[in-house]
Amino acid sequence: MTAEQFIIDDRENNLFRVNREAFTSEDVLQRERKEIFGKTWLYVGHESEIPGKNDFQTRDVGGRPVIFNRDRHGDVRVLLNTCLHRGSSVCRHSSGNAKIFTCFYHGWAYRNSGELVNVPGNEDYKSEPAAVYKGLQSPAQVDSYRGLYFVNFDPDAPDLLTFLGEARYFIDLAADQSPEGVAILEGTHKYSLKANWKLLVENSIDGYHAKSVHHTYFEMMMELGATPPMLGKDTVNGVAPAGMGTEFPNGHATLMYPANGLPLATDSVKQTLAGLRSQAEQAFGENYANAMFGLARNSVFFPSLILIDLSFGLTLRTFYPVSASETLVTGWQIIPKGVDEEFVKYRINNALTFWGPAGLATPDDVEALEQAQKGFGARGEVGWSDVSKGMGKPVPAANDELQMRSWWREWNRRITGEQLPTEGTSFVPFDKQGVDA
Ligand code: FES
Ligand SMILES: [Fe+2]
């Protein structure tokens, strides 16, 4: 073992360990900023958040301030939100509608397609700024998949579709839930935690902690007559009640298990869901509709885009490090388009009950992760975390840790250049040929 070793991937003894320095070191964070946030595809936003011409949202993506907007022709843009003059943001609002972005500092003004169109005191420049600087910059690559927009700051990175590979099928399972498509519900859940961002990656695809950290939620579900996750009887599309973890190239991974709880759903909500399901069956076949509505799925798209479909709610979440021990998180709810108000209300209530600021899940998760970060204070004495659960099983269950190991191997490859073999368990829970045809 060298000081540079972050992962122990011991196949003989089925032990997988992560060096706790990876969660605490500012040097590691600098390398992550360069090798991960500077070179992989990062999520910016969903097309439904900027439905009309000149609509915009401002975001922080991988440490860069950006404007995600539509220009006056309706084309989607991503502009770096920094004035070419002396750096100030050219847009200080979180969302809105604007044809021109005027910098607050000295008044340079830019069209929403980026061009610099007005410079106060322009006559004082021998070389006109508009001719020298042209306009606001964009990330090296901008691309979208099923309405989800991503950027990549590396001009040489492989394209988005190649990067997503088969993991994209889990985006399809969310995007195909209504013939009219899906949309982000207005409103965001923003929070921060005093813990390393990779702890939240692990937590977002961790089926193991559900029973301990979220027992109050499951007790509530049982009182309401719903079956808690991973305790059902039915196998869905080859996924047993205990569920399974699966890995894909480039660090994407998913855990899934048969969905069996719709707490507090009224008849009308159940009818809406049944309607969506039968439309999906007609459009794509029963096998695909089963995967879509019959399996709960937690997916990570490397490095930090999370998509969680628990039937009672569909959440999208991304997060970026502020420092080695602080993370900023933004979460949204996705809703199938065309559903009635009662269904929307049901989804909002569930999202708040489970993931909300005073919900039964997220605050407890944050507490667990902040406790872990505190524990890393003793990393001089206890230097390694264990991520071995289910290693060596032919089919790791949803509450095993295959999906985390898969993510960590990609993290390790990008940070150290060392390529560790996968565990060879890629699984898509439907007949792809039927859907791709
Ligand atoms: S920094 Fe924007 S106009 Fe000066
Ligand atoms: Fe949790």
From TrEMBL:
Keywords for this protein: 2Fe-2S, Dioxygenase, Iron, Iron-sulfur, Metal-binding, NAD, Oxidoreductase
InterPro entries hit by this protein: ARHD_Rieske_2Fe_2S, Rieske_2Fe-2S, Rieske_2Fe-2S_sf, Ring_hydroxy_dOase_asu_C_dom, Rng_hydr_dOase-A
Principal EC category: oxidoreductase
Keyword Transcription regulation on entry: no
CDD domains in the cross-refs: RHO_alpha_C_AntDO-like, Rieske_RO_Alpha_N
One Pfam family recorded for the sequence: Rieske
Annotated transmembrane regions: none
MF term (GO), any: monooxygenase activity
Residue span, Rieske domain: 41-139
Record EC number: 1.14.12.1
PANTHER family, alphabetized: 3-PHENYLPROPIONATE_CINNAMIC ACID DIOXYGENASE SUBUNIT ALPHA (PTHR43756:SF1), CHOLINE MONOOXYGENASE, CHLOROPLASTIC (PTHR43756)
Family of the protein in this entry: Belongs to the bacterial ring-hydroxylating dioxygenase alpha subunit family.
Protein's name according to its UniProt entry: p-cumate dioxygenase large subunit
Organism (species): Rhodococcus wratislaviensis (Tsukamurella wratislaviensis)
Lineage, uppermost ranks: Bacteria, Bacillati, Actinomycetota, Actinomycetes, Mycobacteriales
